[in-house]
Amino acid sequence: FEVKELDTEKELLPLFGNICPYEDEETDSIHNIIDTVHAHTLTVCLSALSMSASGISPSDLLVELKSCGTDIASGEDVELYKDGEFSEGLMIEHLKKLLRITNLTEEQQYILCNLSLMPVSCIWKNPFGKWLRLGSLTEINRLIKYGFISEDNERRTIALHPLIRDICFQQAREADGSYVVFVNPLLVDLPVWKGMGTRVLVVDCPEDLQVQRVMRRSGLSAGQAKAIIAAQATREQRLARADDVIVNDRDAGEIRREVECLHRTYLAMAKDAV
User: Fold this and answer.
1) Global confidence as pTM
2) Cα Rg for the chain, rounded, in angstroms?
3) Any idea what DSSP says for residue 247?
4) Neighbouring-strand partners of residue 160
5) How many CB atoms are closer than 10 A to CB 241?
6) Above 60 in pLDDT, residue 131?
7) Mind listing the pLDDT tens digit for each residue in 153-209?
8) What does each C-alpha distance from 81 to 39, 63, 252, 267 come to in angstroms?
9) Residue 110: exposure state from Cβ atoms within 10 A (0-12, 13-18, ≥19)
10) End-to-end alpha-carbon separation of the chain, Å?
11) Phi, psi of 189 (to 5 degrees)
């Protein structure tokens, strides 16, 4: 089948205007913004959201976008932009600029951070919200509205846009700390791990205790808690992958001492790796 790009006049300008209404005299600037982001629907939506959230003018936003080096004029360059790693690198820089302007709330950032560690395919929407202890799904729905998250209404699942995931991973690579901790309950192999000297620490406990804690933390039934646990790696799989294990069924003070000991070990390993 043939894949066609969305028409700027008939589709992308109305899409932009639905998110951030603009005056007629600003149409040329909005058109230039859409051209600058090469009519990618995610960045068009995020550009509109950035204007709406920050109050920045179309002309000022255009200056910010062009400062990323993404305004590519020639047809040959556009073809290169749309194909391969060069395209992805520019898009990520562009999205990072827009994310800074948009000023996401702490709760929205928390949702995106956690969703970046979920399976690429999808995860159930309601259990995910309860797992994060969200009071409602309002912020998840807002992130869906603006394209950060995709939703399958029939299956009731959500997934993070892959380019947003790439930004999360890039930020991890650029972190200033001695080491970076990924909370990864599904124990999936994340691309960001490659070449980072990753070490797997498993926090373990008996399954019946795990079910009780999920129920108490998220207000779920035993069946719902078991369904969430079943979507994760099994206890045997986690322990088989572990470099280090903390058994979390003891006194909090004892656990803290063990964590502090591991922290010193990781600091020493990070220093040796430099």
Assistant:
1) 0.53
2) 22
3) E
4) 149
5) 12
6) yes
7) 888 889 887 777 777 666 666 677 788 787 766 555 555 555 556 788 999 999 899
8) 12, 20, 52, 40
9) middle
10) 50
11) -80, 110
